[in-house]
Every structure is written in structure tokens, then in C-alpha cells.
Amino acid sequence: MMMSEQFSEKPFNRLLLTGAAGGLGRVLRERIKPWANIVRLSDIVTVENIVAGEELQVCDLADKAAVHELLKGVDAVLHFGGISVEDKFEPIMQANILGMHHLYEAVYKLGVRRVVYASSSHTVGFYRTTELVDADSPLRPDGFYGLSKCFGEALSRYYYDRFGIETVCLRIGSSFPEPRNARMMVTYLSYDDLVELVRVALFTPRVGHSIIFGTSDNQARWWDNSKAAHLGFTPRDSSRVFADRFAQAAPAVDPHDLTSIYQGGPFVTAGPQY
């Protein structure tokens, strides 16, 4: 991977973290500091309390020129920016589709060689909870948000095949301090496991274009990561420790409740009602 010309005792001189004001961005902000001399934090809103070793660059991903400026001097990108919930198509298109294109154009033109992309399990949300899905399973997005993440995965694949830019797409499940409901007993990704997932995605010497599901070592599984074994991701946490809170972790499926039939849960009904 291409490093900055500046000598660095840390693996990277400058890492870019987009979406730094978001929930996962705030977690990563503190944890990635040992990896770089400078962590460039970016979001569409300001990020508070910038300290030594950090720099702030407010940026709207829909602004092509601003994104190009954002990528200058960057060694690698942790792309957690954009809209992270279901919404109308237009705002998702601006941030997650047009913004993704702007990011990769800047990555290509400025010679950045590695992107870690926060994709989502909602790229396959319309698989049933009785099915096991892997990286080669056909995409089945459960809304405009999931659809935008499908675009991001396809776009990053194009930039790898055409220009050799390596990307690891993290199909993140539910990353919170603890599961919030029975569904999250399956999709739970602890913060420590999230950081480890990002670490292996960033530091594995050759990743090509890889897709990996972001989940801890939970008892029930919807996703098979065997095709991402080269990344060496070994989650250490599990939702098992919260099992007493959700005695009905695998309840009988109501045939009339789409949110219990499909892996996407509430996302499958969250969009516009036609």
C-alpha cells in the first residue's frame, strides 16, 4: 500500500475517517489513533473537540470539488459517511450514490490504494431468516438505503477491476453497545469486534475486492464469511452474554409479519408505501 512520503513511525501518516460525527465514527475516532500520525475527521456537520493528531474537514459528499480536497494527502480511507437509515431516494442518492462516486474518483485521481467501505447487511435484507447468505449470494436489498450500499459495492468492484484500487466492503449488522431486540441477537457486532474488523480490512496485505459480514460470534447465524477467510477476522465477543434479556431470541415466525420473515427486519417495511 502506498504511504505518504513523510517518514512515519506509525503504519500510516494520514487516515481519513468519513462519517466521523456518526455513531460508529465516534467509536472509531478514538480507536484508530495508534494507526496513523494524523486522523482526518470528516462529516457534513462539524466534529467537536479536535485534539492533537486529528484534523477536521467538513465536507458534503455530494460536492465533487470538496471531496477531491478532502482526499488530498490521504494514505487510506475508512468510509463511514453518508445516510445510514432508510429515507427517501433523493437524499440517499446524493450522499450514498453520487457521494460514493465522488469519493472513488478522488481516490483514483489522487493515488489512494485502499478503502474500507461501511456497506451494510441490508444489501441482502430480503433473504429469509431461514437462509444462509455469503458474499456470492445475489443482492437482495430491502430498501433505498440497502440499494445504495449495493451500488457502493458494485462501484468499488469497478474501481478495483479497472484501476486496481483495493476495497473491503463491511456488511455491518447491528453495532451497538448491546443488542436492542431479539433480531440483534443474530446481527450484533460489538464495538471491539467492529474495530478488529476495520483493522484486518486495513492491514491485510492484499485484499483485492473483498466482502465480509460484520457480526460477532453469535449463536444464531444468517451470514457465512468463509469467502473472506483471507482477512483473518476472528470476532471475540458474542450476543450470548445478553441471552437472558431475550428469551425468545428465535421466536416462531409470523407468516404475516414481513419484519420477522426477512433478515432486514424493520427496514423491509420502512420505505415509501406504494
In words, what does this structure look like?
It is built from seven helices and seven strands; from the N terminus they run βαββαβαβαβααβα. With 274 residues, the protein is α/β, with parallel strands linked by helices. It has one domain: NAD(P)-binding Rossmann-like Domain (Rossmann fold). Strands 3-2-1-4-5-6-7 form a seven-stranded parallel β-sheet, sandwiched between helices. Helix 2 packs across helix 3 and helix 3 runs parallel beside helix 4. The N terminus is likely disordered.
Write the layout of secondary structure elements.
Blueprint: E1 12-18, H1 23-31, E2 36-42, E3 54-56, H2 64-70, E4 76-79, H3 89-110, E5 114-120, H4 144-163, E6 166-172, H5 184-187, H6 191-203, E7 209-214, H7 258-261
Parallel strand pairs: 1-2, 1-4, 2-3, 4-5, 5-6, 6-7
Count of structural domains: 1
Number of strands: 7
Order of helices and strands: EHEEHEHEHEHHEH
Uncertain stretches of 5 or more adjacent residues: 1-7
CATH superfamily: NAD(P)-binding Rossmann-like Domain
Mean pLDDT: 93
The radius of gyration computed from the alpha-carbon positions, rounded to a whole number of angstroms, is 18 Å
Class by alpha and beta content: alpha/beta
Q: How much helix is in the residues?
A: 25-40%
Mind telling me the CATH class? Alpha Beta
Shape: globular
How many helix segments?
Answer: 7
Fill in the CATH topology.
Answer: Rossmann fold
In CATH, the architecture is 3-Layer(aba) Sandwich
